[in-house]
Design a protein that fits this description.
With about 130 residues, this protein is mainly alpha-helical. It is built from 4 helices and no strands. InterPro entries: DUF2568 (IPR021214).
């Protein structure tokens, strides 16, 4: 017989009502990736089009990204969607920022951002599912 006592695993403690779990480093990195994507889209809009259109694109591109993020991806999303749909929407926002950097002639920045954003997204997504 074993000398170890039987142990029953307990589920992690839920935060008290009205509070949330403390932020982790992955949460902070995911937020930084989101902000970088939005700033990248604004920069792309303001620099890649002629005057008058650049103002429209510079304001509309990040506004659309923020709207899509708020509707489907944010922690308090308007529509509760399947985690797979959430991951696809998040990936589309990150991919649009990556393509924006490529169109501005900075492929290495776009590639680096894409790798970091997808890695952080996968880690954060696995934490949400588990």
């Amino acid at each position: 017989m074993s000398d170890t006592p039987p142990v029953t695993p307990r589920p992690p403690a839920e935060p008290a009502p009205g509070t949330r779990a403390p932020l982790s480093a992955i949460d902070v990195l995911a937020f930084v990736c989101e902000i970088f994507a939005i700033v990248s889209l604004a920069l792309w809009g303001f620099t890649m089009f002629p005057f008058a259109w650049n103002i429209l694109a510079g304001l509309a591109a990040p506004a659309i990204a923020i709207l899509v993020w708020a509707l489907f991806v944010s922690p308090r999303a308007v529509f509760g969607v399947h985690p797979f749909v959430r991951a696809i929407v998040e990936l589309l926002v990150y991919a649009s920022a990556t393509v924006a950097w490529w169109m501005m002639g900075n492929a290495w920045i776009g590639l680096g951002f894409g790798i970091v954003a997808v890695t952080v997204g996968v880690i954060a997504g696995r934490r949400r599912i588990a």
